[in-house]
């Protein structure tokens, strides 16, 4: 008599991905079953390829595991279904209102700098002040899409050299990148980005372990030398609250605020200069 597993086993590409996301989220099969309202036994069967999920089951499990939209498309493909979530260029007409909203937020933040990053830390939009500052510090008259925020911080050059507290800023950015990498699948190109950044000068020597005994600052500042001044900035991050588009879900607005009186006075002058 043929065993159940050999008789009914299907391609377990979906099962491997499901198990990977469950492990990444640190939940048991029982916990996932409770969240998705399905038995732990069925979760086990799905992970081992002894059962094939329906399209609705894939979505239900992805919701329970808070899987990003890009990876949800991958789960659907592995389960034999077409992707559900679109991925459009930000220049696409269907995203025109979202682009206008992003630019409105950026422009409203002036005279303080702000930009929009995609999932690979590429700058896709900026406001007038941010463009002026990056041209001054980076010496580049190109468009936002020519600049990558990770390279600005980590690659040797004018921007990195201008950071008075480079190690502190670099550690903060690396921890943020590491959290991002830990939330994606093993084949995601962000893993290659993480490895590439690790090879840049001075990065491997950074201590990413936060010492609980030290007094942690309320806000980690970024101190940038601009001529004879040292400007102090802190930043906030914002994302779209709800979206069914891969591109929009992955965009981040980073807005900078003056961290001291010197920088506030500089911002007032900067508004007139640019």
Explain what you see.
By secondary structure, this protein is an alpha+beta fold. The protein has two domains: 4-78, Orthogonal Bundle (434 Repressor (Amino-terminal Domain)); 94-273, Beta-Lactamase. Helix content is 49%, strand content 11%. It is built from 14 helices and five strands. Strands 2-1-5-4-3 form a five-stranded antiparallel beta sheet, with helices on both faces. Strand 3 (222-226) and strand 4 form a beta hairpin. Helix 2 crosses helix 4 (40-48) and helix 2 (13-25) runs antiparallel to helix 6 (69-78). The chain is elongated and about 65 Å long. The model is unreliable at 1-10 (pLDDT under 50).
How would you briefly describe this protein structure?
By secondary structure, this protein is an alpha+beta fold. The protein has helices spanning 4-8, 13-25, 29-36, 40-48, 55-65, 69-78, 96-108, 128-138, 149-154, 158-162, 166-182, 190-198, 246-250, 261-273; strands spanning 114-117, 123-126, 222-226, 229-238, 252-258. The protein folds into 2 domains: 4-78, Orthogonal Bundle (434 Repressor (Amino-terminal Domain)), CATH 1.10.260; 94-273, Beta-Lactamase (2-Layer Sandwich), CATH 3.30.450.180.
């Amino acid at each position: 008599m043929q065993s159940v597993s050999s008789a009914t086993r299907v391609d377990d590409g979906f099962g491997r991905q499901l198990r990977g996301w469950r492990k990444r989220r640190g939940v048991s099969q029982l916990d996932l079953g409770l969240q998705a309202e399905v038995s732990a036994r069925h979760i086990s069967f799905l992970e081992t390829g002894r059962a094939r999920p329906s399209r609705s089951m894939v979505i239900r499990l992805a919701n329970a595991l808070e899987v990003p939209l890009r990876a949800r498309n991958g789960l659907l493909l592995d389960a034999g279904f077409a992707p559900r979530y679109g991925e459009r260029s930000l220049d696409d007409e269907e995203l025109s209102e979202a682009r206008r909203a992003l630019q409105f937020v950026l422009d409203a933040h002036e005279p303080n700098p702000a930009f929009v990053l995609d999932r690979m830390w590429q700058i896709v939009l900026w406001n007038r002040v941010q463009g002026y500052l990056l041209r001054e510090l980076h010496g580049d008259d190109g468009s936002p899409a020519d600049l990558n925020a990770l390279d600005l911080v980590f690659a040797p050059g004018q921007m990195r050299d201008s950071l008075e507290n480079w190690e502190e800023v670099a550690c903060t950015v690396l921890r943020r990148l590491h959290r991002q990498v830990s939330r994606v699948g093993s084949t995601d190109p962000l893993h290659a980005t993480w490895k590439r950044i690790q090879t840049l000068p001075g990065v491997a020597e950074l201590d990413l372990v936060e010492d609980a005994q030290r007094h942690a600052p309320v806000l980690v500042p970024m101190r940038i030398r601009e001529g004879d001044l040292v400007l102090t900035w802190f930043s906030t991050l914002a994302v779209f609250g709800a979206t069914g588009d891969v591109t929009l879900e992955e965009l981040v607005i980073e807005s900078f605020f003056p961290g001291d009186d010197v920088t506030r006075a500089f911002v007032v002058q900067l508004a007139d200069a640019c």
